[in-house]
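Input/output pair, single chain:
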Amino acid sequence: MSYEQARDELAAVVKRLETGGLTLEESLELWERGERLAAICEEWLEGARARLAAATATAENGGSGETAAPF
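Output:
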């Protein structure tokens, strides 16, 4: 599932929960689905952060792909 798909479905889940009128069981199922979707989004975001950090480190080191010394 792409980040966008997970994000959009998560938004729909939140909207349904906020609307109310659900049974306790339905609410719990939606909550659990929302938690899974949030975890998927977080995985995508963590991957994006790692890629950005790697690209930034490469750019700062003149494109050598090595990280700079800490001093």
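The first helix runs from residue 3 to 19. The helical segments are 3-19, 24-60.
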